[in-house]
Specification:
Elements: E1 20-33, E2 36-43, E3 46-52, H1 59-64, E4 70-79, E5 94-105, H2 122-127, H3 129-132, H4 136-158, E6 162-163, E7 181-183, E8 191-193, H5 199-207, E9 212-221, E10 232-242, H6 246-264, E11 277-279, H7 280-286, E12 301-302, H8 315-322, E13 326-332, H9 340-352, E14 360-367, E15 370-374, H10 383-393, E16 400-406, H11 408-425, E17 436-440, E18 445-448, E19 453-456, H12 467-473, E20 483-488, E21 491-498, H13 503-512, H14 517-531, E22 538-541, H15 545-553, H16 583-588
Helix pairs in contact: 4-6, 4-15, 5-14, 12-13, 13-14
Length: about 600
């Protein structure tokens, strides 16, 4: 018999009754029932109930042993009585009666419980992550993550993609978030950077003639934490393919994501139809975001033109429109019976949480067969205009129209946030379904208000729609790019693009964004030079592994699907990182630490 175990704790079934077996695992829970000691023994595979009789020589030892101690037990598998069968446990029809016990590791008093999974402060959970990971829900999330990655890898290989590993130590580049820098010992004063993504390398793989590449790639960005983004590092399904159009990328990645979600959705629904394609401008209009949640069954509309009509007397909105602003309407279905507090709370939310002037509204009603409006601003809008506005916005009697007004970006942002909040507050978000979409036709450039210049709006390595001619003849803010995002339930899973594989087009694009040829040659010379020796048209995408697993696990915090995450301050409380290093190490790296100035008292 094996020294520690013949079976896992999730393996025994009724067919094993009568066998003498050996199990090993953690002492999960103990219960004393009238002299009988019941112990749940847990390992990675599950739980088996073991029973110790009072006359057993090991009874006292197990009775006083702390939970989470590691033991090995030997005994006979016995069928449970009918009224003690646990249908919620795979091993619930059997139990093991202990003959022999070995204590492999005795646990000290626990800083947080493993059984029961009560809410616990996050700093304690992260400091003792190895205990937190023993808890059923989190343990299952991490195992789910492993299975999802294995499924993705298999599906990519089935489509003819080859897995490669790209460098971790590379050069800093002027794009995206802040780099993590690594000082060079051999080259004083110079630094490597950890890759924000394998962007340039995967394009060089295409130039090298490998055609279809993927990897489960670690990426490093020195950026702030949030619920769906881990500080420091994350993983993505990085892929690239040659001689492809945007449609080819969609055809390659859509079955992978659809298949993975279908495989791990459980009771949730994954529609079989192709993911809808929504142009960026349409997404911003109808949903107020380029990450729309299609589970919410209503859309935003632009009602600015109605406030240009002479008969409309609501001066606040008329002034906004006259000065180049917009008014967006968000329908709220079947809220006519809601108390005044419902509308006031939404208005307060807009002011306090969105820093907006407010959220005006009209409640739609029917009188004598005609649609009319009630509420603070209804009297300023003639009935005829109101009826046309309601029809335009897709609203009916019993609904309300909320209004977001202001400068373009401000109104769009408020309208999008209001749509999401109203959908959730009214419990209208479709449940137990994954709704995907592609966002396409992103603008190549945007206006950087802080620096008063044109800047890249998305990925600087994207091919502009219309190529060099578009860059030379169009207003930069009108140029669209072959860029696309994939979104699921309001969560952006990835960004991608057809790449700019021509040096002349790339230099012109960077020139428009304020980067001189010398800067581009210095920062991206490796890739530019490669393109000068013949580069195939190519494109790709990089869905985020952490966010995919977060959606499938049904959790809202990304730290619940990462094995050893950092906290919101980018600290690893378990390993105490970041930390100081010795003077000798600093000297070897030619680095001197300059402490930030202390605040004046």
């Amino acid at each position: 018999m094996h020294d520690y175990r013949t079976h896992s704790c999730g393996e025994l079934r009724r067919d094993d009754v009568g066998k003498t077996v050996r199990l090993a695992g953690w002492l999960h829970r103990k219960r004393d029932h009238g002299g009988l000691l019941f112990v749940d023994l847990r390992d990675n595979a599950g739980i088996t109930q073991i029973v110790v009789l009072p006359e057993n020589q090991h009874f006292s030892t197990l009775e006083h042993l702390r939970v989470e101690s590691v033991i090995s037990v030997t005994g006979k598998v016995v069928a449970r009585e009918a009224d003690t069968i646990n249908p919620n446990l795979p091993t619930g029809e059997v139990e093991m009666h202990v003959d022999d016990l070995r204590i492999l590791s005795e646990a000290a008093e626990l800083p947080l419980p493993v059984f029961g999974e009560p809410d616990y402060p996050e700093d304690i959970r992260l400091k003792y992550r190895y205990l937190d990971l023993r808890r059923e829900h989190l343990h299952a999330n991490i195992l789910l993550r492993s299975r999802v990655i294995a499924s993705i890898r298999h599906r990519m290989m089935e489509q003819g993609f080859t897995e490669f590993q790209t460098p971790i130590l590379t050069a800093s580049s002027p794009e995206g978030a802040r780099d993590f820098l690594v000082p060079s010992r051999l080259h004083p004063g110079k630094f490597y950077a950890l890759p924000q993504a394998p962007q340039q390398f995967k394009q060089l793989i295409m130039v090298s003639g490998f055609d279809k590449y993927f990897q489960i790639a670690p990426c490093f960005r020195d950026e702030d934490s949030r619920a769906d983004r881990s500080p420091g590092e994350f993983y993505q399904l990085d892929m690239e393919m040659s001689f492809c159009t945007q449609e080819d990328v969609f055809a390659a990645i859509e079955p992978v994501l659809h298949g993975v979600f279908k495989e791990f959705a459980g009771d949730r629904h994954v529609p079989d139809e192709a993911f809808p394609r929504i142009p960026y401008a349409e997404a911003m209009l109808k949903y107020g975001t380029d990450k729309p949640d299609l589970r919410i069954p209503f859309e935003i509309s632009d009602v600015s033109a109605f406030f240009e009509e002479d008969a409309v007397q609501f001066k606040a909105f008329k002034s906004i429109v006259a000065n180049g602003g917009v008014v967006r309407a968000i329908p709220a279905p079947d809220v006519a019976g809601k108390p005044r507090s419902f509308f006031d709370k939404l208005n307060d939310w807009a002011r306090k949480e969105q820093q907006a002037p407010g959220l005006g509204y009209i409640i739609l009603a029917e009188e004598d067969g005609q649609l009319t409006g009630k509420g603070p601003i209804a009297k300023f809008i003639p009935d005829d205009t109101l009826r046309r506005m309601a029809a335009h916005a897709g609203a009916k009697a019993g609904d309300a129209l909320f209004f977001a007004a202001g400068k373009g970006k401000d109104a769009v942002k408020l309208a999008g946030a209001a749509r999401t909040k109203i959908g959730h507050d009214l419990d209208l978000v479709e449940k137990d379904v994954f709704r995907f979409c592609w966002i396409v036709d992103f603008p190549m450039f945007e206006w950087n208000e802080e620096e008063k210049r044109v800047d890249f709006s998305h990925n600087p390595f994207s091919m502009p729609q219309g190529g060099l001619e578009a860059l030379q003849t169009q207003d930069p803010l009108d140029v669209l790019a072959w860029q696309y995002d994939i979104v699921c339930n309001g969560v952006e899973l990835s960004s991608g693009a057809i790449r700019n594989h021509r040096p002349d087009i790339m230099l012109k694009a960077f020139e428009i964004a304020g980067y001189g040829h010398d800067v581009v040659e210095e920062k991206f010379g490796g890739m530019l030079n490669a393109f000068r020796y013949g580069a195939p048209p190519h494109g790709g995408i990089a869905p985020g592994i952490d966010r995919i697993v977060m959606l499938l696990a049904g959790v809202e915090n990304i730290r619940e699907v990462i094995l050893f995450p950092m906290n919101q301050q980018a600290e690893d409380l378990m390993m105490q990182a970041p930390n100081t290093v010795s003077e000798a190490q600093l000297k070897e790296l030619h680095i001197r630490v300059v402490e930030p100035p202390k605040p004046k008292k």
